Amino acid sequence: MSTSVNRQFVLASRPEGEPSPANFRLVEQPLPEVGDGQVLVRHHYLSLDPYMRGRMSEGKSYADPQPLDQVMIGGTVGEVVASKNDHFKVGDHVVGMGGWQEYLLVGADQRGVLQKVDTTHVPLSAYLGAVGMPGVTAWYGLVKVIAPKAGETVVVSAASGAVGGVVGQLAKVRGARAVGIAGGADKCRYVVEELGFDGCIDYKQHADARSLAKALREHCPDGIDGYFENVGGMVLDAVMLRANAFSRIAMCGMIAGYNGQPIPMAAPQLILVNRMRIEGFIVSEHMQVWPEALKELGTLVAQGKLKYRESIAQGLESAPEAFIGLLKGRNFGKQLVKLV
Ligand code: NDP
Question: pTM score, two decimals?
Answer without folding.
Answer: 0.98
